[in-house]
Write a structure and sequence with these properties.
Elements (H helix, E strand, L loop, with lengths): L13 H19 L14 H10 L1 H27 L5 H27 L3 H30 L10 H25 L10 H17 L1
Helix pairs in contact: 1-3, 1-4, 3-4, 3-5, 4-5, 5-6, 6-7
Amino acid sequence: MPHTTARPATYYSVPRLEAYTDAVFAIAATLLVLDLSATAFGAIKTDAQLWAALGEQWETFMAFGISFALLSGLWVIHMRQFRDIARADLTLLWLNNARLLFIVLIPFTTTLVGDYSEFYAGRMLLPINFFFAALFGVLTYFWAAARGGHLLKAEVKDDVAEQRLGGLVALFCGALTVALSPWLGSWAFLAYVLNGPMQAVLERRRKARANA
């Protein structure tokens, strides 16, 4: 039988992938502010009317603040991931593209919260949007860490367990937010406050078991 050699894997530029991802995050964050339009106030003739009009927009401002904070959190996660990733293959590219699909939807689903929060879909779609953005972010890292960390830098492979745990805790907080949003609306996003404390507790327990 003729000898066949394995086809070498194809890898892509990590800096270009990072730059593209950063640009999409930046555009999504910028588009969030477009929903804060003064044209919705109508005719304003006094300071009192302006303050009253601003007060009536509290749900829109709240949705903007929540979305910007969580979008910034997702960007920080992206930065941490790509600090550890040495190379990118085609699967990683498309997992990251799937994450960006949900990132660019965030301005739209944020608008729904401000305009249609009295409806079930208006309250649900933003937390669902964030959940899937986080999910594909976690899957991106999990793929990079698979096969013994085949896409990671050698010096960070010992940190994989901690990073995976952090991703799973974030998904739990996202799922809890989705579950609570029909009743609590935007207040359900407070579930993400649990992310840091939960991760710290679980990480201590994981290390204790490893050292036992």
